[in-house]
Amino acid sequence: MESVNNPSHYTSGEIQAIDAMRSAFGSDELKMFCKINAFKYIWRSSLHKDGDDINISKAIWFLRMYLDDDPRQKTPKT
After folding, report:
1. Looking at the predicted structure, is the pLDDT value of residue 18 above 80?
2. Distance between CA atoms of 42 and 40, rounded to whole angstroms?
3. pLDDT tens digits along 36-74
4. Is 44 domain-assigned?
5. Most exposed residue of 5, 8, 34, 58, measured as fewest CB within 10 angstroms of its CB?
6. What residues make up the domain containing 16?
């Protein structure tokens, strides 16, 4: 799941976009972005009859960020 948790196109610079967004807009705005983005990936998954696990994984990633449980860390919060 490295392609979901730390995709190379997001980790090639010194700071990831999600961290820059938090810095620029604040935690509350970032949480809203994460919730909306999770919705987008769930919606995409619902359009695919084969289940589309990658979109579900991405939705979970954003929901974890919404819950302040950074999925880039090795172990999830319990």
Report:
1. yes
2. 6
3. 999 999 999 888 766 678 899 999 999 999 999 999 987
4. yes
5. 8
6. 2-66
How many domains, in total, are found in the chain? 1
Q: Please, are residues 4 and 57 in contact by the beta-carbon 8 Å criterion?
A: yes
State how far the Cα of 8 lies from the Cα of 2, in Å rounded to an integer: 9
| DSSP characters over 7-58 | -TTTSSSSS-HHHHHHHHH-HHHHHHHHHHHHHHHHHHHHT-TT--HHHHHH
Task: Give the model's pLDDT for residue 21.
Answer: 96
Q: For the chain, report the end-to-end CA distance as a whole number of angstroms.
A: 20
Nearest to 60 by CA among 39, 31, 32, 30: 39
The CA distances from residue 37 to 33, 58, 59, 76, in Å, are 6, 9, 7, 20
| Average pLDDT over the chain, rounded to an integer | 85
Q: Give domain status of residue 12, yes or no.
A: yes
